[in-house]
């Protein structure tokens, strides 16, 4: 099994997000290293535009291959007329460069899921074979609306229902997408028709996309310490 991730030097919503720490008071390592340490038993590959990440990986890790992002992917991401992420192209590039066995399990993960555990990743990967893809999700069973018009999604507002009777709403989590080279090449995607949606608990489902997310994760970590 191989782990693959991409790390940007900077980000839009949270300044230098990947280099922030959940515990700056104790000088703990940044988010991107948190992932590497947690998944240390696996060979990990990092596509990055950060010279610091490449330098630190060469110095600190034996099982990590960090390589510079192709300029064409950087240009695509910075093109204001391009609305699509180059993520799939970067996955395809990684598979072509570093994966020979088309049936080998590949875990695409993100450093912004700080509480993801190696045990969860291994358990999720065990579904490959029965399924072509495994994707992390978190679910909420509550009354939900969509859009600025507040259109009801899973309930009828004309009468009062019990919360336990409404259908769950499932949300994608960037914690991981698991697949093989063969399945990715077939569908050119991280998920496909035969996908197992792996439910995460509330803590592992935490993703850091905003400053509020980062503050919440820091609070959760202090609770774990306590």
Write the layout of secondary structure elements.
Layout: E1 2-7, H1 31-38, E2 43-48, H2 51-60, E3 64-68, H3 71-78, H4 87-98, E4 105-109, H5 118-125, E5 133-140, E6 145-146, E7 151-152, E8 169-180, H6 181-187, E9 195-199, H7 211-225
Question: Which features does this protein show?
Answer:
226 residues, 7 helices, Spore Coat Polysaccharide Biosynthesis Protein SpsA, Chain A, 23% strand, 9 strands
What does this structure look like?
The structure is a single chain. The model has no long low-confidence stretch (mean pLDDT 93). A seven-stranded mixed β-sheet has the order 3-2-1-4-8-5-9, with helices on both faces. It has a two-stranded antiparallel sheet with strand order 6-7. 32% of the residues are buried. By secondary structure, the chain is an alpha/beta fold. The two termini are 34 Å apart. It has a single domain, classed as Spore Coat Polysaccharide Biosynthesis Protein SpsA, Chain A, CATH 3.90.550. It is built from seven helices and nine strands. The protein has helices spanning 31-38, 51-60, 71-78, 87-98, 118-125, 181-187, 211-225; strands at 2-7, 43-48, 64-68, 105-109, 133-140, 145-146, 151-152, 169-180, 195-199.
